[in-house]
Amino acid sequence: MKSIRIAALAAVTVTAAFSLTACGGDDSGTNASAKDSSTASTSTGSSSSSSSSSDSGSDGSEAGSTQSSSGKSTGTTTNDATQTSGKVTFCKTEDLAIDAVDAAPDATEGRIDITMINRGAATCSATGFAGVDIKDADHTSNPIERGPAQPRITTLKPGGAAVFNLAYTIDSSGNSLSSPTDIIVTPPNETHSVTLKWPSDAADIKGAYTDVKVYPTHNAN
Q: pTM of the prediction?
């Protein structure tokens, strides 16, 4: 009987040990499975988040680019249209027929009218003061100062004319110290000049060439 009890006790002990080992193996397997599942879930979430962020950034970038491009295109078109419609170039010396005549209104006020006719094919601007030098018989050249007047807008269509004046006081004494022979004219906003003959019928200048004044251009009536 004693031997049977000992054998039975040993069998119970072995069975209990086996049960504990089996339980431990199941727990390990369950934990590993849960860990693998958690890892897969985290990986999937990260991938989904990254893909969503990438798609959103791409859409935003494209929208911004389209808006910027559209704004720039509109602005450029507007500026070009404004410049094209409002642009009038200055008259070039080579396109102008220039002449000088005596236009003194009386015996005391001397005046030379200088007319510029647009021979070009396009409308141009002759607004402002022309540059003027008077050449004397002694071969010296004297710049003429501007008179006290404000320039007027002077636009010349093809065939249109502009006029500006030289004004001075007439010397009736016969003792004038000036002997003008030529008028050197540079149209407003130009650098090329033309040389005109001083009108032969113009009266003598009283004083010096510094007393002669040039006035701004205006459209001929």
A: 0.61
Site of tokens 């069998």: 11
Residue range 194-214, pLDDT digits in tens: 999 999 999 999 999 999 999
CATH architecture designation of domain 93-219: Sandwich (2.60)
3-state secondary structure the chain: CHHHHHHHHHHHHHHHHHHHHHHHHHHHHHHHHHHHHHHHHHHHHHHHHHHHHHHHHHHHHHHHHHHHHHHHHHHHHHHHHHHHHHCCCECCHHHEEEEEEECCCCCCEEEEEEEEEECCCCCEECCCCCEEEEEECCCCEEECEECCCCCCCCEECCCCEEEEEEEEEECCCCCCCCCEEEEEEECCCCCCCEEEECCCCCCCECCCHHHCEECCCEECC
For the segment 12-70, what is each residue's pLDDT rounded down to a tens digit? 444 444 443 444 444 444 444 444 444 444 444 444 434 433 343 333 333 333 333 33
